[in-house]
């Protein structure tokens, strides 16, 4: 990602008097032109980077300039390191280089305490199994985001409808255990959230786009989900045999033990096919106590599944 590269370039310039643009381009696997755009961005941020021409020239910080390393405390540096460490669990070889550079600005006398802070909490975003096709889609979308190039793909909705989409990619979102692309859809003339697993025939188009300045501080893909009119209170009861599953999937503070030794709890969910599948995945250790129409719907789905498996298997030849 661009912010990783910019910070890494700044740290390299702090530790080296001069460095060639070609060397930076090779290091980060981008064009020399991209490196010079990065230098402009760094200058705009108030860090004076100078290009020296001729033999022995290169890119360096203005003579006499020093970045105050006390701008970031050891705790803040450790938090940045931990965030990069978490991000590296879902790909991004550049994160490792940046983590090394951050470690290099920590004084030797404080390195032991720094390492202790960076191992107090580890967040591993990687799924138990990441399939190769999904990795390829992520890599392609990262390239499209970096190059500001539009992408096109077939998209299959949750209802099974297939449509062709052309999208300006803005943000890759890891929500829950799934990857999504947030971007401007040319067909819908609006921003949409697309699940990567529902994409087919994903390719980059030979069309650039001008990225709009959109605020992501309020996470627009989450706002509608949380609106009260889109949520339904669902009351659940886990049998004593299912208590371990309740404790694994839900906050123990929300679980109330009932007279049978099981748990009851009430949660707010959007009512859709995902909810029915999620509730049925607990099998017979979970009962939905209300609302009644969800109980009926789950019964219909369960009877349909039972009918599929109740018929005799075809005889083997």
Question: What distinguishing features does this structure have?
Answer:
Alpha-Beta Plaits; 3 domains; Arc Repressor Mutant, subunit A; 317 residues; five-stranded antiparallel sheet; SH3 type barrels; alpha+beta; four-stranded antiparallel sheet
Write the SSE topology.
Layout: H1 2-15, H2 21-28, H3 32-44, E1 49-52, E2 58-61, H4 74-87, H5 93-104, H6 111-118, H7 132-147, E3 149-156, E4 162-175, E5 178-185, E6 190-195, E7 199-208, H8 220-226, E8 232-238, H9 243-249, E9 256-257, E10 263-269, H10 273-280, E11 286-290, H11 292-310
Antiparallel strand pairs: 1-2, 3-4, 3-7, 4-5, 5-6, 8-10, 8-11, 9-10
Based on the coordinates given, report the CATH architecture of the largest domain.
Orthogonal Bundle
Class by alpha and beta content:
alpha+beta
* Number of E strands: 11
Q: What fraction, in percent, of the residue positions are helical?
A: 25-40%
> What string, H for helix and E for strand, traces the elements in order?
HHHEEHHHHEEEEEHEHEEHEH
Q: Class of the largest domain in CATH?
A: Mainly Alpha
The overall number of domains is 3
Strand order of the biggest β-sheet: 6-5-4-3-7
The N- to C-terminal Cα distance equals: 57 Å
CATH homology group of the largest domain: Winged helix-like DNA-binding domain superfamily/Winged helix DNA-binding domain
Mean pLDDT: 80
Shape: extended
Our count of helices gives 11
Please describe what this structure looks like:
The structure is a single chain. The chain is an alpha+beta fold and 317 residues long. It folds into three domains: 2-118, Arc Repressor Mutant, subunit A (Orthogonal Bundle); 132-225, SH3 type barrels, CATH 2.30.30; 228-309, 2-Layer Sandwich (Alpha-Beta Plaits), CATH 3.30.70. Helix content is 40%, strand content 24%. The chain is built from eleven helices and eleven strands. The protein has helices at residues 2-15, 21-28, 32-44, 74-87, 93-104, 111-118, 132-147, 220-226, 243-249, 273-280, 292-310; strands spanning 49-52, 58-61, 149-156, 162-175, 178-185, 190-195, 199-208, 232-238, 256-257, 263-269, 286-290. The strands form three sheets. Strands 6-5-4-3-7 form a five-stranded antiparallel beta sheet. A four-stranded antiparallel beta sheet has the order 9-10-8-11. Strands 1-2 form a two-stranded antiparallel ribbon. Strand 3 (149-156) and strand 4 form a beta hairpin. Helix 1 runs parallel beside helix 5. It is extended, with a radius of gyration of 26 Å. The model has no long low-confidence stretch (mean pLDDT 80).
């Amino acid at each position: 990602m661009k912010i990783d590269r910019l910070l890494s370039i700044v740290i390299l310039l702090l530790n080296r008097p001069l460095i060639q643009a070609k060397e930076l381009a090779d290091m980060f696997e981008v064009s020399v032109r991209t490196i010079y755009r990065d230098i402009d961005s760094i200058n705009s941020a108030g860090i004076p980077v100078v290009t020296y021409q001729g033999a022995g020239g290169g890119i360096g910080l203005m003579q006499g300039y020093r970045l105050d390393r006390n701008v970031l405390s050891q705790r803040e540096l450790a938090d940045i390191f931990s965030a990069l460490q978490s991000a590296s669990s879902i790909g991004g070889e550049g994160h490792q280089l940046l983590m090394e550079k951050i470690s290099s600005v920590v004084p030797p006398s404080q390195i032991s305490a720094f390492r202790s802070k960076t191992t107090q909490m580890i967040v591993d975003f990687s799924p138990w199994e990441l399939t190769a096709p999904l990795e390829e889609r992520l890599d392609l979308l990262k390239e499209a985001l970096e190059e500001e190039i539009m992408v096109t793909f077939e998209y299959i909705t949750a209802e099974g409808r297939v449509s062709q989409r052309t999208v300006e990619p803005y943000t890759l979102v890891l929500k829950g255990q799934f990857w999504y692309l947030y971007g401007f859809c040319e067909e819908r003339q609006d921003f949409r959230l697309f699940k990567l697993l529902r994409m087919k025939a994903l390719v980059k188009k030979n069309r650039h786009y001008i990225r709009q300045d959109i605020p992501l501080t309020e996470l627009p893909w989450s706002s509608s989900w949380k609106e009260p009119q889109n949520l339904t209170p669902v009351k659940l009861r886990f049998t004593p045999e299912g208590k371990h599953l309740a404790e694994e999937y839900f906050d123990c503070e929300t679980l109330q033990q009932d007279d049978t030794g099981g748990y009851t709890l009430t949660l707010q969910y959007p009512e859709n096919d995902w909810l029915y599948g999620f509730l049925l995945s607990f099998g017979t250790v979970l009962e939905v106590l209300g609302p009644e129409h969800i109980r009926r719907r789950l019964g219909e789905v369960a009877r349909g599944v039972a009918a599929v498996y109740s018929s005799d298997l075809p005889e083997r030849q």
